[in-house]
Design brief:
alpha/beta, FAD/NAD(P)-binding domain, 3 domains, 7-stranded mixed sheet, 6-stranded mixed sheet, 29% helix, binds flavin-adenine dinucleotide
Length: 380
């Protein structure tokens, strides 16, 4: 016979810990919660386990509290840890990871009147319905637990390399970086090495800046399906434009048209994106499954670069590297990875168009090879 939990939280990254903190705050002492996960960087997940101070949050500190009823919690934590940042500043993600862990530890220390929380170090391997009111989870360690409510906090996982590195000799495979969050890879890159980064999101910007901080001065080619990179927050954030979700059209094309028209009525388009922020969930829930699929197919990359913006000083640093030609964007698909004498690892891709992050200018081109002594291929 096994214990039946009131809530099972599956995962041990950021969302799992954020949910657990709030369950501890809100559930009665009689409740039982299990957190199931096998992540050694408990609570920090992919985003907040970085150890480099230059890797920053992309949301101002004042909006990153774990506890909705204490909006200043993170800013207060920063102050009490010798980092006197303001609510509008962008803190480091490593500090945020420590804050997440500290907050959980602080809530767990309160023994009086808090619910029971069991941390189970295992992977959830399967799930079945039991007696129509509970779900039973099979764990990687052979155990089974049951829960009346389940919160899945599984993250997005890692992308796999889109081509098989078959032709690449073992001696060069170490130049394909599987996990850029193990920062030891930076030591394998010589200052003048050419680097090719697959993917052009937030992780790409982090890795470009980490390379620079590590003394790298070679060219960096960035390849992604659309060649779009995250945009920056404004130094002086505009006042959000309130958006009434109920008055928006119910199709993605209609919504985009309306939002574009709204952004022409304000001095800074960010006012529209920031106005959408509190309405996003309601907007998503209103969409039919066809429209949701349409959004994911066509609009997601555009949403990502406008919605998940980087701190303004981070954007300025990054843009300088784009403008001086150090970082070059390519829109297209990786087709093959080869091997040459010495340290070279040529990658071939087919391009559809490249876009500069700020100007939005496009240029057309076809298949081309990114090649250089000691190319490093990154994947995200
Ligand atoms: C580079 C980068 C920067 C970001 N910056 C910000 C930011 O500044 N602000 C912001 O709000 N968001 C940011 N994000 C988004 C951020 O990733 C999410 O906000 C959040 O961290 C995602 O948390 P998660 O729990 O969903 O995923 P993760 O934190 O990645 O955790 C997923 C967990 O699920 C576990 N898991 C998976 N499968 C199983 C299984 N079968 N059984 C048990 N456990 C399992 C994994 O081991 C892992 O612990 C950033 C993301 C990235 C990549």
């Amino acid at each position: 016979m096994y214990l039946t939990y009131d809530v099972i939280v599956v995962g041990s990254g950021f969302s799992a810990i954020a949910v657990t903190c709030n369950l501890i705050e809100q559930l009665p002492a009689s409740a039982k919660v299990a957190v199931v996960g096998d992540d050694p960087g408990f609570g920090r997940g992919t985003a907040y386990r970085t150890e480099l101070y230059l890797h920053r949050l992309n949301v101002p500190a004042g909006r990153m509290s774990l506890l909705p009823h204490q909006p200043d919690d993170f800013v207060d934590w920063l102050k009490s840890h010798g980092r006197p940042l303001q609510a509008g500043d962008f803190a480091s993600r490593s500090d945020y990871g420590l804050y997440v862990r500290d907050t959980l530890a602080r809530l767990l220390r309160k023994r009086d009147g808090r619910c029971r929380v069991d941390f189970i170090k295992a992977k959830a391997a399967g799930c079945v319905e039991r007696y129509s009111s509970t779900l039973a989870f099979h764990l990687g360690n052979g155990d089974e637990i049951a829960g009346r409510n389940v919160v899945l906090c599984l993250g997005v996982g890692n992308a796999t390399l889109p081509v098989a590195p078959d032709g690449v000799p073992a001696s060069l495979r170490s130049r394909i970086i599987e996990n850029p969050w193990r920062l030891s890879w930076l030591r394998r890159v010589a200052p003048s090495d050419a680097v090719c980064i697959l993917g052009s999101g937030l992780t790409m910007i982090d890795q470009v800046l980490a390379l620079r901080a590590h003394g790298h001065s070679g060219k960096i080619d960035v390849l992604s399906r659309r060649g779009l990179a995250p945009l920056g927050h404004a130094w002086k954030p505009p006042v959000p434009l309130p958006i009434d979700v109920q008055r928006l059209p119910e199709t993605i094309s209609g919504i985009l048209k309306t939002l574009r028209a709204k952004s022409r009525t304000v001095a800074d388009w960010r006012a529209v994106m920031d106005g959408l922020r509190p309405a996003t969930q309601a907007l998503w829930q209103r969409l039919s499954s066809e429209e949701r699929a349409r959004f994911l197919r066509h609009a997601l990359p555009w949403w990502n670069i406008h919605r998940h913006r980087v701190a303004p000083d981070v954007f300025d640093k990054f843009e300088k590297l784009v403008l001086d030609g150090t970082v070059r964007f390519h829109a297209g698909f990786l087709k093959s990875l080869g091997a040459e004498e010495g340290r070279s690892l040529p990658a071939t891709g087919s391009e559809r168009r490249a876009r500069s992050p700020r100007s939005g200018r496009t240029g057309s081109s076809t298949a081309r090879e990114w090649n250089g002594p000691g190319s490093v291929i990154h994947r995200f």
